[in-house]
Q: What sequence folds into this?
Protein backbone atom coordinates (compact mmCIF):
# COMPACT_ATOMS: atom_id res chain seq x y z
CA UNK A 1 0.00 0.00 0.00
CA UNK A 2 1.35 3.39 -0.93
CA UNK A 3 -0.41 5.47 1.70
CA UNK A 4 1.38 7.37 4.47
CA UNK A 5 1.74 5.65 7.83
CA UNK A 6 -1.77 5.00 9.07
CA UNK A 7 -2.76 3.92 12.52
CA UNK A 8 -5.77 1.73 12.04
CA UNK A 9 -5.45 -0.60 9.05
CA UNK A 10 -4.32 -4.12 9.55
CA UNK A 11 -0.61 -4.93 9.33
CA UNK A 12 -0.63 -5.79 6.05
CA UNK A 13 -19.54 -14.97 -2.83
CA UNK A 14 -20.91 -15.63 0.61
CA UNK A 15 -20.25 -18.99 2.18
CA UNK A 16 -21.75 -19.68 5.61
CA UNK A 17 -20.38 -22.35 7.89
CA UNK A 18 -21.27 -23.32 11.44
CA UNK A 19 -18.44 -22.83 13.90
CA UNK A 20 -18.11 -25.53 16.49
CA UNK A 21 -14.94 -25.12 18.52
CA UNK A 22 -12.70 -22.77 16.58
CA UNK A 23 -14.03 -19.24 16.77
CA UNK A 24 -17.17 -19.53 18.89
CA UNK A 25 -15.36 -18.05 21.87
CA UNK A 26 -15.17 -14.71 20.09
CA UNK A 27 -18.81 -14.11 20.97
CA UNK A 28 -19.57 -12.49 24.31
CA UNK A 29 -22.15 -15.00 25.46
CA UNK A 30 -23.33 -17.54 22.90
CA UNK A 31 -23.10 -21.27 22.57
CA UNK A 32 -20.93 -22.86 19.90
CA UNK A 33 -23.97 -24.27 18.12
CA UNK A 34 -25.46 -20.79 17.72
CA UNK A 35 -22.32 -19.17 16.37
CA UNK A 36 -21.69 -18.70 12.68
CA UNK A 37 -19.36 -17.00 10.29
CA UNK A 38 -19.96 -15.75 6.78
CA UNK A 39 -16.98 -15.67 4.45
CA UNK A 40 -17.18 -13.37 1.46
CA UNK A 41 -15.23 -11.87 -1.40
CA UNK A 42 -16.15 -8.64 -3.13
CA UNK A 43 -16.95 -9.11 -6.84
CA UNK A 44 -13.85 -8.05 -8.76
CA UNK A 45 -11.44 -8.81 -5.93
CA UNK A 46 -8.14 -10.29 -7.08
CA UNK A 47 -7.18 -13.83 -6.24
CA UNK A 48 -3.41 -13.45 -6.23
CA UNK A 49 -0.98 -12.93 -3.36
CA UNK A 50 -1.71 -9.66 -1.51
CA UNK A 51 -5.04 -9.21 -3.30
CA UNK A 52 -8.58 -9.72 -2.05
CA UNK A 53 -11.24 -8.29 0.26
CA UNK A 54 -10.63 -6.23 3.42
CA UNK A 55 -13.68 -5.29 5.55
CA UNK A 56 -13.12 -2.53 8.10
CA UNK A 57 -16.23 -0.99 9.65
CA UNK A 58 -19.64 -2.36 10.61
CA UNK A 59 -22.59 -0.20 11.67
CA UNK A 60 -25.62 -0.85 13.85
CA UNK A 61 -27.55 -2.11 10.82
CA UNK A 62 -24.87 -4.74 10.06
CA UNK A 63 -23.74 -2.94 6.89
CA UNK A 64 -20.01 -3.52 6.35
CA UNK A 65 -17.66 -1.07 4.61
CA UNK A 66 -14.16 -1.74 3.38
CA UNK A 67 -12.16 -2.09 0.21
CA UNK A 68 -10.82 -4.73 -2.13
CA UNK A 69 -7.68 -5.06 -4.22
CA UNK A 70 -8.19 -6.19 -7.80
CA UNK A 71 -5.96 -8.32 -10.02
CA UNK A 72 -4.10 -5.19 -11.18
CA UNK A 73 -3.36 -3.98 -7.65
CA UNK A 74 -5.91 -1.14 -7.76
CA UNK A 75 -8.19 -0.45 -4.78
CA UNK A 76 -11.99 -0.20 -4.76
CA UNK A 77 -14.31 0.53 -1.85
CA UNK A 78 -17.31 -1.64 -1.12
CA UNK A 79 -20.41 -1.77 1.04
CA UNK A 80 -21.97 -5.10 2.01
CA UNK A 81 -25.64 -4.96 3.04
CA UNK A 82 -27.06 -6.92 5.95
CA UNK A 83 -28.49 -9.38 3.41
CA UNK A 84 -25.13 -9.93 1.74
CA UNK A 85 -25.39 -7.75 -1.37
CA UNK A 86 -22.01 -6.13 -2.14
CA UNK A 87 -21.79 -2.83 -4.00
CA UNK A 88 -18.53 -1.44 -5.37
CA UNK A 89 -17.61 2.14 -4.45
CA UNK A 90 -15.28 4.15 -6.69
CA UNK A 91 -14.81 7.81 -5.84
CA UNK A 92 -14.86 10.27 -8.76
CA UNK A 93 -11.27 10.99 -9.73
CA UNK A 94 -9.83 7.81 -8.23
CA UNK A 95 -6.91 6.34 -10.15
CA UNK A 96 -7.10 2.89 -11.65
CA UNK A 97 -3.45 1.82 -11.62
CA UNK A 98 -1.72 -0.35 -9.04
CA UNK A 99 -1.61 1.40 -5.65
CA UNK A 100 -4.36 3.85 -6.62
CA UNK A 101 -8.11 3.79 -6.05
CA UNK A 102 -10.75 4.10 -3.34
CA UNK A 103 -10.52 3.21 0.36
CA UNK A 104 -13.76 3.05 2.39
CA UNK A 105 -12.92 3.13 6.11
CA UNK A 106 -15.86 4.15 8.27
CA UNK A 107 -19.66 3.96 8.13
CA UNK A 108 -22.28 5.49 10.41
CA UNK A 109 -25.80 4.37 11.32
CA UNK A 110 -27.35 6.10 8.30
CA UNK A 111 -24.96 4.28 5.92
CA UNK A 112 -22.88 7.37 5.17
CA UNK A 113 -19.30 6.29 4.41
CA UNK A 114 -16.07 8.22 4.87
CA UNK A 115 -12.73 7.37 3.32
CA UNK A 116 -10.14 8.57 0.87
CA UNK A 117 -9.04 7.98 -2.68
CA UNK A 118 -5.72 8.13 -4.51
CA UNK A 119 -5.83 9.78 -7.93
CA UNK A 120 -3.82 9.07 -11.06
CA UNK A 121 -1.05 11.35 -9.77
CA UNK A 122 -0.93 9.39 -6.47
CA UNK A 123 -2.42 12.30 -4.50
CA UNK A 124 -4.76 11.48 -1.59
CA UNK A 125 -8.19 13.11 -1.22
CA UNK A 126 -10.94 12.68 1.39
CA UNK A 127 -14.51 11.77 0.56
CA UNK A 128 -17.93 11.37 2.12
CA UNK A 129 -20.41 9.13 0.32
CA UNK A 130 -24.09 9.59 1.17
CA UNK A 131 -26.41 6.59 1.45
CA UNK A 132 -27.82 7.41 -2.01
CA UNK A 133 -24.34 7.16 -3.54
CA UNK A 134 -23.62 10.89 -3.86
CA UNK A 135 -19.98 11.82 -3.25
CA UNK A 136 -18.47 14.90 -1.65
CA UNK A 137 -14.70 15.08 -2.05
CA UNK A 138 -12.37 17.41 -0.16
CA UNK A 139 -8.83 18.29 0.83
CA UNK A 140 -7.77 19.78 4.14
CA UNK A 141 -6.34 23.33 3.85
CA UNK A 142 -2.56 23.14 3.42
CA UNK A 143 -2.67 19.43 2.61
CA UNK A 144 -0.61 17.60 0.05
CA UNK A 145 -2.45 14.39 0.99
CA UNK A 146 -5.74 14.11 2.91
CA UNK A 147 -6.76 10.88 4.66
CA UNK A 148 -10.36 10.77 5.96
CA UNK A 149 -11.05 7.65 7.99
CA UNK A 150 -13.81 8.23 10.55
CA UNK A 151 -17.43 9.37 10.55
CA UNK A 152 -19.72 9.49 13.56
CA UNK A 153 -23.49 9.11 13.59
CA UNK A 154 -23.92 12.86 13.29
CA UNK A 155 -21.88 12.96 10.08
CA UNK A 156 -18.74 14.59 11.48
CA UNK A 157 -15.58 13.29 9.80
CA UNK A 158 -12.06 13.09 11.20
CA UNK A 159 -8.70 12.10 9.85
CA UNK A 160 -5.30 13.59 9.18
CA UNK A 161 -3.34 15.22 6.39
CA UNK A 162 0.26 15.48 5.27
CA UNK A 163 1.74 18.91 4.50
CA UNK A 164 4.43 19.91 2.01
CA UNK A 165 7.13 19.25 4.62
CA UNK A 166 5.91 15.68 5.20
CA UNK A 167 4.56 16.31 8.71
CA UNK A 168 1.13 15.14 9.91
CA UNK A 169 -1.82 17.19 11.19
CA UNK A 170 -5.23 16.11 12.42
CA UNK A 171 -8.50 17.51 11.12
CA UNK A 172 -12.22 17.42 11.81
CA UNK A 173 -14.80 18.16 9.11
CA UNK A 174 -18.25 19.39 10.13
CA UNK A 175 -21.39 18.39 8.21
CA UNK A 176 -21.34 21.88 6.67
CA UNK A 177 -18.00 21.03 5.07
CA UNK A 178 -15.94 23.32 7.32
CA UNK A 179 -12.56 21.74 8.10
CA UNK A 180 -10.64 22.51 11.29
CA UNK A 181 -7.05 21.33 11.57
CA UNK A 182 -5.35 20.55 14.88
CA UNK A 183 -2.01 19.56 16.33
CA UNK A 184 -1.50 17.75 19.60
CA UNK A 185 0.70 19.62 22.11
CA UNK A 186 4.17 18.08 21.94
CA UNK A 187 3.83 16.84 18.36
CA UNK A 188 6.99 17.04 16.29
CA UNK A 189 7.13 19.21 13.19
CA UNK A 190 9.62 17.30 11.07
CA UNK A 191 8.94 14.97 8.18
CA UNK A 192 7.19 11.83 9.42
CA UNK A 193 6.27 13.51 12.71
CA UNK A 194 3.11 15.24 13.91
CA UNK A 195 -0.49 14.37 14.74
CA UNK A 196 -2.29 11.26 13.47
CA UNK A 197 -5.90 10.18 13.88
CA UNK A 198 -6.81 6.51 13.97
CA UNK A 199 -9.42 5.05 11.64
CA UNK A 200 -12.86 3.38 11.61
CA UNK A 201 -14.12 4.37 15.08
CA UNK A 202 -11.79 7.07 16.39
CA UNK A 203 -14.48 9.76 16.70
CA UNK A 204 -17.47 9.15 18.95
CA UNK A 205 -20.99 10.58 18.97
CA UNK A 206 -19.96 13.52 21.17
CA UNK A 207 -17.15 14.41 18.74
CA UNK A 208 -14.25 13.26 20.92
CA UNK A 209 -11.33 12.12 18.73
CA UNK A 210 -8.50 9.79 19.62
CA UNK A 211 -5.19 9.23 17.89
CA UNK A 212 -1.50 9.49 18.53
CA UNK A 213 1.27 11.94 17.81
CA UNK A 214 4.94 11.51 17.01
CA UNK A 215 7.22 13.82 18.94
CA UNK A 216 10.52 15.30 17.75
CA UNK A 217 12.21 11.98 18.59
CA UNK A 218 9.59 10.02 16.59
CA UNK A 219 8.13 8.43 19.74
CA UNK A 220 4.37 7.75 19.74
CA UNK A 221 2.04 9.18 22.40
CA UNK A 222 -1.73 8.73 22.71
CA UNK A 223 -4.20 11.56 22.97
CA UNK A 224 -7.91 12.29 23.17
CA UNK A 225 -9.25 15.59 21.81
CA UNK A 226 -12.60 16.68 23.21
CA UNK A 227 -15.18 18.29 20.92
CA UNK A 228 -14.23 21.71 22.33
CA UNK A 229 -10.62 21.18 21.25
CA UNK A 230 -9.17 20.32 24.66
CA UNK A 231 -6.32 17.78 24.49
CA UNK A 232 -5.33 15.09 26.97
CA UNK A 233 -2.14 13.15 26.23
CA UNK A 234 -1.28 9.79 27.77
CA UNK A 235 1.19 6.92 27.64
CA UNK A 236 0.87 3.31 28.72
CA UNK A 237 3.30 2.53 31.53
CA UNK A 238 5.11 -0.17 29.56
CA UNK A 239 5.54 1.88 26.40
CA UNK A 240 9.06 2.25 25.03
CA UNK A 241 10.65 5.66 24.63
CA UNK A 242 12.75 5.09 21.52
CA UNK A 243 11.99 6.01 17.92
CA UNK A 244 9.04 3.99 16.61
CA UNK A 245 8.00 2.95 20.11
CA UNK A 246 5.31 4.33 22.40
CA UNK A 247 1.52 4.44 22.63
CA UNK A 248 -0.96 4.20 19.73
CA UNK A 249 -4.77 4.29 19.85
CA UNK A 250 -7.30 2.54 17.64
CA UNK A 251 -10.79 3.29 18.93
CA UNK A 252 -13.06 5.28 21.27
CA UNK A 253 -16.64 4.53 22.25
CA UNK A 254 -19.41 6.81 23.47
CA UNK A 255 -18.40 6.43 27.12
CA UNK A 256 -14.96 7.80 26.23
CA UNK A 257 -13.21 4.46 26.73
CA UNK A 258 -10.23 4.09 24.40
CA UNK A 259 -8.36 1.03 23.17
CA UNK A 260 -5.04 0.67 21.41
CA UNK A 261 -1.60 -0.82 21.70
CA UNK A 262 1.77 0.21 23.00
CA UNK A 263 5.15 -0.79 21.64
CA UNK A 264 7.73 -1.68 24.26
CA UNK A 265 11.48 -1.17 24.19
CA UNK A 266 11.92 -4.52 22.43
CA UNK A 267 9.47 -3.64 19.64
CA UNK A 268 6.69 -5.96 20.85
CA UNK A 269 3.04 -4.83 20.92
CA UNK A 270 0.72 -4.98 23.93
CA UNK A 271 -2.93 -4.02 24.26
CA UNK A 272 -4.51 -1.49 26.57
CA UNK A 273 -7.89 -0.07 27.51
CA UNK A 274 -8.07 3.47 28.91
CA UNK A 275 -11.17 4.39 30.91
CA UNK A 276 -12.70 7.84 30.48
CA UNK A 277 -11.24 8.81 33.84
CA UNK A 278 -7.73 8.07 32.63
CA UNK A 279 -7.02 4.66 34.20
CA UNK A 280 -5.09 2.45 31.76
CA UNK A 281 -5.31 -1.34 31.90
CA UNK A 282 -2.65 -3.17 29.91
CA UNK A 283 -3.17 -6.70 28.59
CA UNK A 284 -1.79 -9.44 26.35
CA UNK A 285 -3.78 -12.05 24.45
CA UNK A 286 -2.88 -15.64 25.37
CA UNK A 287 -0.41 -16.98 22.82
CA UNK A 288 0.87 -13.56 21.72
CA UNK A 289 4.56 -13.44 20.82
CA UNK A 290 6.96 -11.23 22.72
CA UNK A 291 9.48 -10.40 19.99
CA UNK A 292 9.70 -7.36 17.75
CA UNK A 293 6.69 -7.15 15.45
CA UNK A 294 4.76 -9.66 17.56
CA UNK A 295 2.18 -9.22 20.30
CA UNK A 296 -1.35 -7.92 20.86
CA UNK A 297 -3.01 -5.30 18.63
CA UNK A 298 -6.54 -4.18 19.54
CA UNK A 299 -8.45 -2.77 16.56
CA UNK A 300 -11.86 -1.67 17.87
CA UNK A 301 -13.98 -1.12 20.98
CA UNK A 302 -17.77 -1.21 20.89
CA UNK A 303 -20.45 0.48 22.96
CA UNK A 304 -20.36 -2.13 25.72
CA UNK A 305 -16.57 -1.94 26.04
CA UNK A 306 -15.73 -5.21 24.28
CA UNK A 307 -12.44 -5.00 22.37
CA UNK A 308 -11.49 -7.01 19.30
CA UNK A 309 -8.24 -7.28 17.42
CA UNK A 310 -5.43 -9.56 16.43
CA UNK A 311 -2.44 -11.04 18.11
CA UNK A 312 0.71 -12.16 16.35
CA UNK A 313 2.36 -15.28 17.71
CA UNK A 314 6.06 -16.17 17.90
CA UNK A 315 5.88 -17.55 14.36
CA UNK A 316 4.39 -14.37 12.90
CA UNK A 317 0.89 -15.83 12.44
CA UNK A 318 -2.19 -13.63 13.05
CA UNK A 319 -5.04 -14.79 15.30
CA UNK A 320 -8.25 -13.10 16.40
CA UNK A 321 -9.16 -12.17 19.94
CA UNK A 322 -11.97 -10.54 21.86
CA UNK A 323 -11.57 -9.03 25.31
CA UNK A 324 -14.74 -8.61 27.36
CA UNK A 325 -15.37 -5.42 29.39
CA UNK A 326 -14.39 -7.37 32.52
CA UNK A 327 -11.07 -8.51 31.07
CA UNK A 328 -11.69 -12.06 29.88
CA UNK A 329 -9.93 -12.81 26.59
CA UNK A 330 -11.10 -15.37 24.02
CA UNK A 331 -9.13 -16.25 20.90
CA UNK A 332 -10.02 -17.87 17.60
CA UNK A 333 -9.28 -18.39 13.91
CA UNK A 334 -11.49 -18.41 10.85
CA UNK A 335 -11.52 -21.83 9.16
CA UNK A 336 -9.41 -21.58 6.01
CA UNK A 337 -7.01 -19.02 7.44
CA UNK A 338 -3.36 -19.75 6.68
CA UNK A 339 -0.96 -20.81 9.40
CA UNK A 340 2.27 -19.33 8.04
CA UNK A 341 3.94 -16.05 8.88
CA UNK A 342 1.86 -13.10 7.68
CA UNK A 343 -1.24 -15.26 7.35
CA UNK A 344 -4.19 -15.86 9.66
CA UNK A 345 -7.20 -14.07 11.14
CA UNK A 346 -7.56 -10.31 11.65
CA UNK A 347 -10.78 -8.96 13.22
CA UNK A 348 -11.24 -5.23 12.55
CA UNK A 349 -14.54 -4.11 14.11
CA UNK A 350 -17.24 -5.25 16.51
CA UNK A 351 -20.65 -3.63 16.28
CA UNK A 352 -23.26 -2.77 18.85
CA UNK A 353 -24.75 -6.26 18.52
CA UNK A 354 -21.30 -7.87 18.90
CA UNK A 355 -21.02 -8.85 15.26
CA UNK A 356 -17.37 -8.88 14.21
CA UNK A 357 -15.96 -8.23 10.77
CA UNK A 358 -12.45 -8.52 9.42
CA UNK A 359 -10.27 -10.46 7.04
CA UNK A 360 -8.40 -13.70 6.94
CA UNK A 361 -5.34 -14.44 4.84
CA UNK A 362 -5.14 -17.91 3.37
CA UNK A 363 -2.11 -20.13 2.74
CA UNK A 364 -1.61 -18.50 -0.68
CA UNK A 365 -1.55 -14.99 0.75
CA UNK A 366 -5.00 -14.10 -0.63
CA UNK A 367 -7.23 -11.93 1.59
CA UNK A 368 -10.90 -12.76 2.24
CA UNK A 369 -13.60 -11.02 4.25
CA UNK A 370 -15.57 -12.52 7.11
CA UNK A 371 -18.51 -11.57 9.30
CA UNK A 372 -18.95 -13.34 12.63
CA UNK A 373 -22.48 -13.40 13.99
CA UNK A 374 -23.14 -14.49 17.61
A:
Amino acid sequence: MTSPTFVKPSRITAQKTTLCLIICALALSVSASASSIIKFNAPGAGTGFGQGTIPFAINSGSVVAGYYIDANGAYHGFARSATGTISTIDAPGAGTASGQGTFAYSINKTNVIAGYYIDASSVFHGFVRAANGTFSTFAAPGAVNTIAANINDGGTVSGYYVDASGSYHGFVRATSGTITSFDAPGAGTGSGQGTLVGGVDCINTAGAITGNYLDSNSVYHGYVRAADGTFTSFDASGAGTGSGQGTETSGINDTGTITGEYIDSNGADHGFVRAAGGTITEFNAPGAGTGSGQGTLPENINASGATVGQYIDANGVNHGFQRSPTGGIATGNVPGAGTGSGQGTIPNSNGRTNKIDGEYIDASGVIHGFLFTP
About this structure: The longest strand covers residues 52-58. The radius of gyration is 19 Å.
